[in-house]
Design goal:
By secondary structure, the protein is α/β, with parallel strands linked by helices. The chain has 2 domains: 7-60 and 361-409, Roll (Urease, subunit C, domain 1); 62-352, TIM Barrel (Alpha-Beta Barrel), CATH 3.20.20. It has 11 helices and 15 strands. The protein has helices at 82-85, 105-113, 148-157, 171-177, 180-192, 215-222, 253-260, 275-283, 324-333, 338-343, 347-352, and strands spanning 7-18, 23-32, 35-40, 48-53, 58-61, 63-68, 91-97, 119-125, 162-169, 196-200, 231-233, 264-266, 370-383, 389-403, 406-409. Helix 6 (215-222) links the parallel strand 10 and strand 11 (231-233). The N and C termini lie far apart (47 Å). Bound molecules: zinc ion.
């Protein structure tokens, strides 16, 4: 800021919503030295170097995407460019879910986290090889491809980046080696002192000649391995092995007990998301704690390349464009209140990352990661990978973001264009 001004920047006249502090008021947000300096009904004109009028827009803490795949170049066609998924899509902080492993973490730091304008963290892969080609080759993920002690050492030496551990609990792996990998992953997470993020829903085909796995029993066997703070992902999956029992068509009772015990839920949208499964899960009283877009190179058409037809047999495969803000629009359309939807991408993920004092809120002194959103009224058509369409009364459209106080344009080619229902 210049000598005569108190603030570098003021976002003027927006609707400031900060779920962590129960704020929902129209006013000005002032920034100085890359941090939140003040929230006030009106900051005097002469107090800032620059004023941006955001009247009619939402001003919220910088969005946090808890499920990204941005280990570009190393994870093959799976990894997207971090800033395309991050700041250029209106998202300040990204958590790569299981891309880097103990072997590739130095490359993740040097070539992804350091150069990205988006704050880029990770849940370290429990497996030696990490998420190469989106976990396409199941034989790389067997128990003897996990090194518990070495992964704990890598996590402890890189705690600034490593905020959790990622592993998969699904029928294809269980048909080969049961839940052994989950137990090893839990030992790694406990050894570092971070949560374990568990992918639910089929990933790999059953092993030829392997034992057939009952998805309901698999979930029952998994839950006792987990502890409060661990994260169950893909609750709305259209693939068996998620929250919905294949026997009853309703939420598995063991899930209710797990959530009472303090386990949490991440949507992990991706190509797993089904409106029907989401409605059943929400109707059972379950609310996701965090959202997570789960964008990757097989479910969006990245510039310069198509979603890869060779991978059409992979259950991740899907081509409907989406983004974190699009996933927010879907939660709103499903009846989740705005403040709760915002909490899934701000306050709640900040807590999951152990960073509630730094990001995910708009209190003075915190890093000025801010999202400016347009809550655009209309009749918008949303569709899922099962072919269902839903009409939304509001579309969440990112306008721009601040990363540590610096404005960044929202111009990502990944953002879907709003589709009017009448089109
Ligand atoms: Zn994923």
């Amino acid at each position: 800021m210049s000598a005569q001004h108190s603030f570098d920047l003021v976002l003027r006249g927006g609707r400031i919503i900060d779920p962590a502090n129960g704020v929902d008021a129209v006013g000005d947000l002032a920034i100085a030295d890359g941090r939140i300096a003040a929230l006030a009904p009106r900051v005097p004109d002469g107090a800032a170097d620059r004023i941006i009028d955001v009247s009619g827009k939402l001003v919220v803490p910088g969005l946090i995407d808890t499920h990204a795949h941005v280990f570009e170049h190393v994870t093959g066609r799976f990894g997207l460019n971090p800033d395309m998924v991050g700041v250029r899509s209106g998202v300040s902080t990204l958590v790569d879910q299981g891309g880097p492993s103990l072997m590739t973490l130095p490359a993740f730091r040097r070539f992804i986290a350091e150069p990205a304008r988006s704050r880029t963290l990770c849940f370290l892969s429990a497996y030696l090889v990490g998420g190469l080609e989106g976990h396409y080759y199941p034989q790389l993920y067997r128990p003897d491809c996990v090194d518990v002690d070495a992964t704990i050492r890598a996590g402890l030496a890189n705690r600034d980046l490593v905020r959790g551990i990622k592993a998969h609990c699904e029928m294809g792996g269980a048909s080969r080696w049961g839940l052994e990998v989950m137990k090893l992953a839990k030992r790694i997470a406990a050894g570092i002192g971070v949560p374990l993020y568990v992918h639910l829903g089929r990933l790999w085909p059953d092993a030829e000649g392997g034992r057939a796995v009952d998805p309901d029993l698999l979930v029952e066997e998994l839950i006792p391995i987990l502890e409060p703070g661990d994260i169950l992902a893909h609750p709305f999956t259209r693939h068996p092995g998620g929250f919905i029992s294949t026997r009853t068509g309703e939420v598995h009772p063991v899930i209710h007990r797990a959530l009472e015990r303090g386990l949490t839920v991440d949507v992990g949208h991706g190509s797993h998301f089904s409106f029907e499964m989401a409605r059943r899960t929400l109707a059972a009283g379950i609310r996701p704690h965090t959202l997570g877009a789960d964008l990757h190179g097989y479910n969006v058409k990245a510039p310069g390349g198509d979603a890869d037809p060779d991978r059409a047999g992979n259950p991740f495969f899907g081509v409907a464009p989406f983004s974190l803000t699009h996933a927010m629009t879907e939660l709103l359309a499903l009846g989740v209140p705005l403040a709760e939807v915002l909490a899934t991408v701000t306050a709640n993920p900040a807590r999951m990352l152990g960073m509630a004092g730094e990001i995910g809120a708009l209190a003075p002194g915190m890093v000025a990661d801010v999202a400016v959103l347009d809550l655009r009224p209309g009749a918008w058509r949303l569709s899922d990978n099962s072919g269902e369409t839903v009409e939304a009364a509001h579309m969440v459209v990112p306008e721009f973001s601040l990363r540590a106080g610096v404005p960044v344009a929202v111009d990502s080619p990944l953002l879907p264009a709003p589709v009017p229902a009448a089109a």
